[in-house]
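Researcher: Next sequence.
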Amino acid sequence: MNDKLPKLPSPFLALIPILTLVVLLFFTITLFGSSALSGGSQVVLLTATAVCSVLAMTCCGVSWKRIEESISNNIKGVSSALIILLLIGALSGSWMVSGVVPTLIYYGMQILHPSFFLVSCCVICSIISVMTGSSWTTIATIGVAMMGIGEAQGFSIGWIAGAIISGAYFGDKVSPLSETTVLAASVTRTPLFPHIRYLLYTTIPSMTITLVIFLVVGLMHRSGAGEHMAASAEALQNKFNISLWLLVVPVITGILIARRVPSIVTLFASSLLAVGFALLFQPHILEEIAMAKTADSASLFKGVFITLYGETNLEMGNPSLNELVSTLGMSGMMNTIWLILCAMCFGGAMTASGMIQSLTSLFYRFMEKRAGMVASTSLFGIFLNICTADQYISIILTGDIFRNIYKKKGYESRLLSRTTEDSVTVTSVLVPWNTCGLTQATVLGVPTLTYLPYCFFNLLSPVMTILVAITGYKIRQVVHPEKEITREDEEE
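Model: Next structure:
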């Protein structure tokens, strides 16, 4: 953006687009329910964008060119994420039809005891997410399988999704391979590993409490789902060729991730590998998808393509199992992609108009003391997740806006980087129109507001960072901010 901002809008003016968004979303979700993501929410976001743009041009003298450039930059920033979403759709279809996910579900039901399922699910997703650095990849692969296992054991979809997301975002928050972890450290100018070690003071207590909750709930769980699990396992075995050889696909995918192969390449390669196993192990499934009367190469080719891009519905003899093994492929991601594009328009307009910067002034009066400063940063980060609908933008803006404030007050940059992670990274998945919330709701097939109350790690993290700030544990002011990370800090 080449032109300077002529006039910073007042906080009152900046709240108008936010209120417009919230009010219209309330009525849209009330009227349309879960189908609001099919168009209603997109219209709301574009309407709020229009309100913001009109106010910016008429009241603040902001040029349309500035707004347009900001929107374009936002969309450019999520372009790779949109490709990843399409590939996740293809991967989910190929992993299901090839029998990879049914095999994981089949063996998982036999290995994971219902009493320890939720805590095991959370721990497994945590380990995989730490190793991969990606909550999206973790949820799209092992998370989908865990949903099937949990439903077969009689757990509600909210509890299962909450355990999956809690574990996945633990790794997304602390893994040195995570983009958000690296971004938060970079924006606040904090060395990566001191940032991660400092995160543990708030992250470990939050995850400990989360695991205790899931353990207690699991021990209290009395589903009587033994017959249902046996029937589900038999139905999966009758429909799919269940084989341990199919686990080669997730193993190779894990190796690619461990070797830090780019996400787009990994997802594409994993999808193609799953297609190969589908041709070897499940040709009858591909023929059913293609609705072919005869088995030939054309029907297999058609079945593969439909699996990757379209909707698949297999008859399992049980409505819940029919829904479990159904997939939407790349086409199932289109509503999410459409909504992300509209959300980027709103975030771009809010940024270009200066309304985001204006709203920060509302927090300054509460930043005299340490606890108030951390609480304001945390609340503002959550607020940005709601306004900009993208965790990357929220992390960058939070770091940029508060960096000088922390420095002037003599606090270490790692306090800001930790607060940013505790408030932005983990809460993005709790906002229905945020890119993370949209993606995980689509991949897991669970509405954001359904799993939100059970994402204990994500809900506890902002609270924990404020509580630690109140106690002052391991928080100190520095005399020379430019030398704040010492050798002692590196060894902590």
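Model: The chain is about 75% helix and 0% strand. The CA atoms of residues 7 and 172 lie 38 Å apart.
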